[in-house]
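::Amino acid chain::
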Amino acid sequence: MSIAAISYCHSFGLKSSTKNCLIFVDDSNLIYPVGSNTILYNIETKIQKFISSSSKSEEIICYAISNNHKYFAISERSEKPVATIFDMFSLRRKKVITLPDTESKEFISMGFSYDAKMIATLTGTPDWTAYLWIWDKTKIVASVKCIINIPTQMKLKKDLTNTNAQTTVSQDSKVLIANNMHSISSASYINNSSLNDNKFKSSKSTYEKSKSDYNQNILNAQINEISINPIDQFQILVIGNQIFRLYKYLEGTLKQVPLPKIENRNYLSHVWTCHGQIIVGTDDGHILIFENNGDLKQDINNTVGPENTVVGVSSLMLFKNSLMAGCTNSSIVLYERTSITTNINNKNINLQNCEQFEKVKEFTLNTEIPTSVISLSINPSEDTIVCATSNNQIFSVMSVNSEFKSDETRFELLSQPFHYGKIYSLDTCIRKPLLVTCGSDKSIRIWNYLENTNEITKFFNDDIYSVSLHPSGLNILAGFSDKLRLMNILIDDLKPYKEFNIRGCKECKFSNGGQYFAAAYRNCVHIFSTWSFENLCSLKGHSSKIQSIYWSLDDNYIITSGIDGAVYQWSLKDMIRGECKRGSESFLKSCLYTSAICSNDCKKNYAVGSDKTLKEIQDSQITKELISDVVYTKLAISNSGTMLFVGTITGALRVVKFPLMETKVCEYQEHKAHSDAITALCTSADDKYLFSAGMDGSIYMYKVYDRETKITQRKKEEILSDEILVSRTDAEEQVIMLSDLRKKVEDLKMENEYQLRLKDMNCNEKIKEVTGKLLQEIDSLKMATALIKSEKEKEENKFTEDINQEKIKHLNEINELENIHREKIVAEFDKYKALELKTSELQEGWKNQISLLNEEKNNTLKELTTQYDIKLKSKQDEILKLQSDIKKLHDEFEETIKETEEDADIEILELKHMYEKRLKDEKEIGLKLKSENGIMKKMFNSLQNEIDSHKIDISKMNVEETKLHNIIKNLEKDISSFKKEIQERDETIRDKEKRIYDLKKKNQELEKFKFVLDYKIRELKNQIEPREREIESMTDQIKEMDNELEHYNKINSNLELVIDDYKLKLNASEKEVNLEKENVLAIASTIKRFKIELSECMQYIMEPKLLKQHIKRLYHKYCTESEKIETIQADIQQEYFRQRDYLEKTISSLRKKVKKDKEFNRTSNYNFMKENITLVREINYLRRAAKKNQFMNNNKNNITLPKCLPTVQQTISVENTS
C-alpha cells in the first residue's frame, strides 16, 4: 500500500490572461504559462521543462525578464502579492519578494532595470501602489500610490447634461455610465454617439446615491503596465486607462515628473527605445512616441486592411530599426524607422535626431475568431519572432531576414492549435496512442500523446458537450446539442457515420471491449450496440441529470452518478434479453455527485461530489468517507486497480493512497497543474500515462510510476496499430493521381535522357578543344623552361665568382679592424690610471669642507631660536582675543540650535511612532525567524553533506564538459568546411541557371517547328485508333464479368436467407424437444404416485372386496389416461424423428452447396483477376508498340531541320506534357 508517483510529461495550451505571456530566454528556448505552471519550451527539439509555482499560488499574473536574459520574474496571486525571481541558467529561485502590509493580492505588472539590479512592481486593486526594489537584498527603495485624477462632481454633471453638445466624454464617466458601476473594463472605449438616454438617467441616479463609492469604482482596472527607463534606473513609467505618468526617485521618495498636457486615452501597451523615448499604443488605434520629458514627437494612426480601418494596439515590440505592433483584430503591423530629409538650396540633407516610423507591411493571423495579439517576443539573435493571441494560440516566423518584408512571409502556428475556452470531455483508446478532447470552442481535437502533436482539429456549428473514443481508435462518439453522432476518423477529417436522436448528451462512453456504448439523456442512460446500433436497454432510476458513466473492466457492470445524490451500479449480464438489474445503490441528498467509478472486482464503488469527501461504497452502504479541504470534481482509477487519482475544483491533481485507509483524513500527493477546475481525467491502457483537462482550456500529460507493480509488468510494450480509415473516393482519386504522375515521370525520364546525351556530346567536343589547346601550351612551356634553365646556369656561375671575391675582401677588413682595436685598448688603460689619482685628491678636499660647514650651522640655529621665541609670545596674545570672540558666537549659535531642535522634535516624535510600530512587527518576525533558524541549521548540515556529494559530481561533469568543448570545436571546423562547399555549390547553381536560360531560348525556337510535326502526329494517331477500339472491347468484357460477379453475390445472399430459415426451424424443434422432456417428467411423477397407491392397496390383500374397489379406482384414475398418452406419444415421436432426419439431411446438403459455391466463386474471382492482369499487360505492350511505331515513322520521313532541332520522340513527349 503506497502512493503512486507521477511527473509532468507534456502540456497543450496557453494561459493568455497572463501579462507578457511569451518571453524568449535564449535563441531556442521560450517561456509561456500553461495552467498554474510555467513552461520552458525548446523550439528546435520541442521538449518542455516545467517550472512549478508555489504551493499557495492561485494564478500566474505576469512575467518579466532582465535585459541580459539572466533573471526571470513570475508574479503570482496569493493571500499577499508574491514575485519570484529565477536564475535562468539553473532555473532555481534566487529571491522571493512579498508585501505583508497590503490589501491587494497580486503584482499586476513588473519591470527590471537595464542593469538587472532593481525591479519595479505595481500592485492591483485596491492599493494601486508602485514599488521600486533592490531585489537582491529584498529592500524597498521607494513607493508611491498611483492615484487617478478623477474629474470633479460639477464636471461630471456638466458632461451628463450637455451630451449633445460635446463630441467626447471622459473615459471614467463612460465606464461608469455603461457598466452601471458594477464592472469596469481596462480596454473599453465607448463613443458618445452610442450612449442612450436611459444610460444617462441611470448614471445620474447612481451619482446621487453613491458619491462615496465613485472614486473606488473608477480606480478598478485602471493601470495596465509599469517599467523602468533603460537610461535612468530611478525613473518609472506607469500607463493605464487615462493614465500616463512618470515618477523620479528624489530625496528618498518617488515624485511625479511634471508633464505637458496629454490627451486622456486608454493606454494598453508601451516600450522604451535605447535613446530613452517612449512608444505607447492606445485602444483607439494611435501609436504615440514621446520624449523623455513628455513631449509628443509623433502620432501614428494604426490602420489595417485595404479600407484603412483604425485598430487598437494591444502589444508593441522593438527590434533592429523596426517597430512591430500587435492589433486587436488578429493582425500585426510592421513599421520601419526612416530619417527626415529637407531641401536646402536644392540639396537633400538628413536632419539628425529627426526620425519617424512608417508602415512597411501588414500580417494577418489565421485564427478561427477575431482576436487581439496580446504579446510579442523576439529571440536574442533576432531571427525568430513569436506572438500570442487572446484565444490561446502561439504564432511564429522563423526566418527574420531581408525577405521578411516580402508577401510570402506569414505567421504560422508554433506547435499545435490549442483549445480556447473550457474543455468538457477527454478520452483515450487502446490500439493507438490517441487522445480526444472537446470544448466550448465547438471543436473536437485528436492528439498523439507519444509524438506530442495534434492529429486532427475540426470545428462544428453546434455545441459539443461530451466525446468518447472507440478502443480501436477508428471511431468517435460525440454528444452535440441537437444529436448524438458516431463518426469515423479519417486521415485528416472526421466523417459522420450514424446519428442518434439524443439531444444535449452531457456524458457518453464506449465500453472497454468496444461492442457497446452508453449515452446519458437527462436522467436516463441508453445502451446501444456499436455494430447494429440497436438500443439494447435503458437504465432508469435517477431523478435528475446524470453526471458520469463508468464501465467495469469486463463490461458486465456500469456505474452512474447524478445531481440527485444517487450512485447506481447496474448489472448488464442479461442485457441481451433486454433486462438490466440494479446491483447496488447509494443515495445521499446533501451531496451532488460529479464522478463515480468502481474497483476491478466491481465490489467497491468510489464517488466524489460537492461535500468535499471521497466515499467508498460497498453493498449499497458507505463504508469509508475521507474528508478533504477542497471540492473533488473527477475520479480516475488505473487499469491495474492499484492507483487512484482525484481532480479538484482548484485545478490541482491529487494521487491518493490506495486502497483507502480507515482514517477520516485522506493521504495524498498534490500536483498543481490547472488554474481552474479539472473537468476530465483518464489513464492510458498501459497505465504509463495520466491525462487531465480543465476549465482553463489546457491539457496535461503525466508519466505514472507505480511502486507496487512488478518490473516485468511495466516493461511490457503494447503493440500499437498504424491503421487509418480512408474513404473510397479519396482512394480512387489517389490511384488516378498516381497513374498520371507515373506517366509524367516516364515522359520526364525520356526528356532527361535526351538532354543528358546532348550535354555529353557538347562536353566531349569541348574536352577535345581544351585538350588540343593544353597540348600546344605544354609544348610552348617546355621550350620556355629549356631557355630558362640555360640562363639559370649562366647566372649561377657568375654568382659563385662574386661570392669568392667578397670572401677575400671580408678577411682583409677583419684583420685591419683587430689591429685598430688593440691600439685603442692600450690608450684607454692609461687614461683610467690618471683618473684614479685625481679622485683620491678630491675626497680629501671634501672632508675638510664638511667640518667647516657643521660649525656654521650650529651658530645660525642659536640665533633663529631667539627670534622665533619673541614671535610666539605675540601670537599667543592674539589667540586669547580670538577665543573671547568665539565664545560670543557660540552663545548665539546655541540659541538658534534650540529653536531648530524644538521644530525637529515634533517631526521626530511623529516618525518615532511610525517606526515603533515597524519595530514591534519586526521583533515578532525576528522571534519567528529564530525558531526557524534552528530548523534551518539542521537542514543546513544535511544540505552541506549533499553539497559535498554534488561537488564530486560537478568535477566529473567538468571533465565531460571539456570533452564536449573539444567536440564542439571539431564540429565548428566541419561547419566552416560545409559553408565553403555551399558557396561552391551556389556558384555551380548559377552556371546551371545560365544553361537553363539558354535551353529556354532553344525551346522557343523548337516551338516554331511544332506546326511541321503536327501532320505526322495526326497520322500516328490514326494508327493508334484501332488499338484503342480493341482496348474498349476488352473493357466491355471486364464489365460483363463484373455483372456476373454481382449475380453470384446475389445467389450467395439468397442462400444465407435459406440458412436463416433453417435455423429458425431448428429453434422450433428444440422447443418441441423441451416440451417432450417436460411430458416425460410428468409421466415419471404419475408412476411414482401409482406405486405409492399400490403399496397402500396391499393393506387390503386379506379383504378381496375392498381390494377390488381400490384397484378399480386406480384403473379408472391411471389406465385410461396412460393409454391415450402412450398412443399420442408414439405418434409424436415418429413425427419428431421423421422431421429431424429431414432437417439434418437438408442442412448437410445446404452446407455442401455453400462450400461448392464458395470454391466456385474463389476460382472464378481468381480467373477474373488473371484475365485483368493479362489485359493490362497487353495494353501496356500495345502502348509501347505504338510509341515505337511512331518513332520509326518519324525517322523514315526525311525532313531538313536545323541542328538545334531535337528528335521527334522529344517533340512528341513535349507536346504530350503540354
User: Anything to note?
Assistant: The chain is about 40% helix and 30% strand. The first helix runs from residue 153 to 161. Residues 149-221, 710-716, 1198-1218 have pLDDT under 50 and may be disordered. The radius of gyration is 50 Å.
